[in-house]
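pasting for the record
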Amino acid sequence: MKKMVQGTEHEYTLYCRKMGTMGFDPHMMALDLLRDSDLHLAGEFITNGSRVYYDVGHFEVSTAETTNFHDVVIWEKAGEKILDWLRRIMEEKYTGETKIHAFKNNTSPDGTSYGSHENYCVSRDVAFPARFIRELVPHLATRFVYTGAGDIVRGKYVLSPMAFLTSQVISGETMHDTGLLNTRDEPHADGRLWRRLHVIVGDALMNETAIMLRHFTTSAILRLMEADALADVPRIKDPVKDVWRNVEIRNPEQWKVELEDGSIVSPIDVQRYYLEKIETLVEDEWEHRALRTLEEVLDDLEGRRSKDAARRVEWLDRYYAIQEALEKKAGPDVEMMACKQYSEIGMDRSLFYKRQRAGLLDRITDDEAIKRAIQEPPDDSRAHLRRELCDTFNIEMIDWSVLIVNDGTRRRIDLLDPYATKLEAPYATAS
């Protein structure tokens, strides 16, 4: 499958009992510590190519440009580990016995949502938004059955909090009135060639397989769209209505999607359509493995093999974790506490990592690969070139696609090709 530059953005929540009365904000302190550390590169960028900054009260990590669905998992997990390292430093140096909790989720119990977004660098040749509404929205409206993180929102356990909070098919907003398809258009590249597809209806996932499947399927579908291979895609009559209906149902036999021709199918049926199309693209072992995994997950969900599916489907495993907590002690507070504790990134506190250590969850990478990605950028994207330039020059200004360097003269370097790894590559020229 042809490479596709992609990445994720996550707004992490940190909480400490001291943060209110003492004016202590762990988000800002974590950023200060990071900028004083060996991981800082220039501006808001760190050595592994990611951008880390403060956004609407949260600590946000935008991963470096990765070119495939496997690497995006590694660099996303690296961002998670960086924040956990900063959390531990703050506890050791500043708060002592007062714990700082860091959560990787993107909704609050009252229904407030914050960013957990995906970005894909797609061709301008695909008509926007018409083709995306017709060919991508059916995927976005049904993929949450295996990409949902699960959460308790407004007193209900839902498969995907962001799907639950989606209100329309298309929208330019990211904080309210969210749509399945977002129209934000900041390419961070040559805008004549590429569009940055900003997907905002995903959840903050902990499970490596779920992250992998989300990016494998979505990037493959975008490649199929470029090849004009989805003309016979199932047409969903009212995708938002079906999302609202299905997102609260844990029994796959009750999931329903109404097509424009009046027929009723399952979200799994829609995903099987895409599965069959994606099969025509797979080439290497990673892609074949991802395809097999997707097919197995759909089979497990449809066959109600819940324990098998839960190894790779986060909403299902989180539900099991909550039920196990309730067996020890009943009550709504216990349910909510277990739900949130699942999303903690601290290895010693997180229910997710407790279950991963117990062998209940599948992995698609390992700790050594994540450790390397904490310090180094991917070697096959613009992130590698940007790091090289920062190591070579004094940087006056830096963004994804442009740097201003001081090499005796004030010089602007445009990095308009997100795939460029050398300065002499097309669209990566000095001016």
